[in-house]
Amino acid sequence: MSRVTGRDTAWDRSRHAVQQKVQELAFALFAEHGFDATTVEQIAAETGVSRATLFRYFGTKEDIVLGDTAEQCAVLTTAFAARPPEEDVWISLQRAAEALPSAQSPEHARQVAMLVHSSASLRSRYLVKMAAWQEVLVPLVEQRLGAQRGTRSRVRAAAIVACSLACLDVAADALRHSAELTLDQLYGEAVSAVRGPAGPKS
């Protein structure tokens, strides 16, 4: 789902509106035929735009589901940087993830999770996006940790970000089977499991 901000121009808002319409109609096709079986030509015909126009709004068919990587990286870094510097870094990462456009609607997040885990090409693209998210977040986390910069501090920061993103992936997978819990709740549960002692809660 595309994201509109207060700084967007009229052209940006128009582009976001078209992207949202394309996504809604494309998701209906994916639900009916499956992601892999749905062609770009079908999406273009259903949405009333040309194939060339479709690719101007979305770089690939996978991006219709997963969104724009550069935009997501900007959202993550801006949201993380806006968190209080004294806040626990894990909490800051969770709040940054909650700012992603795909996390804004519980139903949309569930649809994305269902599709990502039903298509090898989508799954592959999703992992590439997560690698891009890690690349932009690691320097921010390393700076937040406050240790002297070096190999050890970067390893620590990279490990924290990798674990946080793995928790997000686990939460998205679990979301497919949960109608009552949100992505944020499942993500928080996954992070708690990684950080706290294993075993049932009292």
TrEMBL record:
Portion annotated as DNA-binding: 39-58
Q: Which domain of life is it from?
A: Bacteria
Please provide, alphabetically and separated by semicolons, the GO molecular function terms listed in this UniProt record.
DNA-binding transcription factor activity; transcription cis-regulatory region binding
For this protein, the record's PROSITE patterns field holds: HTH_TETR_1, HTH_TETR_2
Pfam families membership: TetR_N
- Say yes or no: keyword Transcription regulation present: yes
The record, for InterPro entries, names:
DNA-bd_HTH_TetR-type_CS, Homeodomain-like_sf, HTH-type_TetR-like_transc_reg, HTH_TetR
Keywords in alphabetical order, please: DNA-binding, Transcription, Transcription regulation
Q: For the HTH tetR-type domain, which residue ranges apply?
A: 16-76
This one is known as TetR family transcriptional regulator
Organism of this sequence: Cystobacter fuscus
